[in-house]
Amino acid sequence: MASVVADACGWVSVSRTIQAGLVLVTLFVLPVVWVAVHAVWALRGRAELFGAAKEHPRRRPTDRQLVNHLRNEHPLTPLWWMVAVLGGLGTLGLGCALPFALADGAALAGVLLGTGLAVSLAALTLAVPGIRRAARQGSEDERRRAELWSLPTAVERRLMVPLLGTGDGGHLGA
To answer: What is the distance between the alpha carbons of residues 139 and 159, in angstroms, rounded to a whole number?
Structure first.
């Protein structure tokens, strides 16, 4: 945003390629990296909690550990939803742009758009089974947790809040 404003005001000349790259990184790369890091952190904590439960079955984790690492959804669920949303938006945008590029005779643009469309469709195809698998794993985690520890109701309510933060138990993509 700062580079666009600086270029528009004439303070600094910034090429369109750099501006487009910054926009792509800001909109697509940073959110995916943030969600992936959060998922890895949650998966590691989840594995540690369940590993400790096997070694010390009578020791119950703290409420903070339970809230941080054992949600009623699997930690990879937000990552799969993000891939699905980005794949869907990419498919929609590139699918609409491809016919115009081909009609104008821009072969290189058509190849690039077609490649992007194929990648978006592949991401969408991978994300849907990933969402289903993560939902199954989340319900299995809930069952395992119920077998190992009884939870106070305040912690149960906090665990019901999904990682995506919609508040009603649903997902943004639902």
So the answer is: 12
Round to whole Å and give the CA distance between 93 and 36: 24
How many CA atoms within 13 Å lie on the side-chain side of 88?
9
Tokens of 94: 């590139």
Q: Which amino acid is at 138?
A: G
Reduce the DSSP state of residue 106 to 3 states and report it: coil
Look at residues 116, 95, 91, 88 and name the one whose alpha carbon lies nearest to residue 172.
88
The single-letter DSSP state of residue 57 is T
Could you report the per-residue pLDDT of 84-134, keeping only the tens digit for each? 888 888 888 888 888 887 888 888 888 888 888 899 899 999 999 999 998
Q: To which H or E segment does residue 170 belong?
A: none
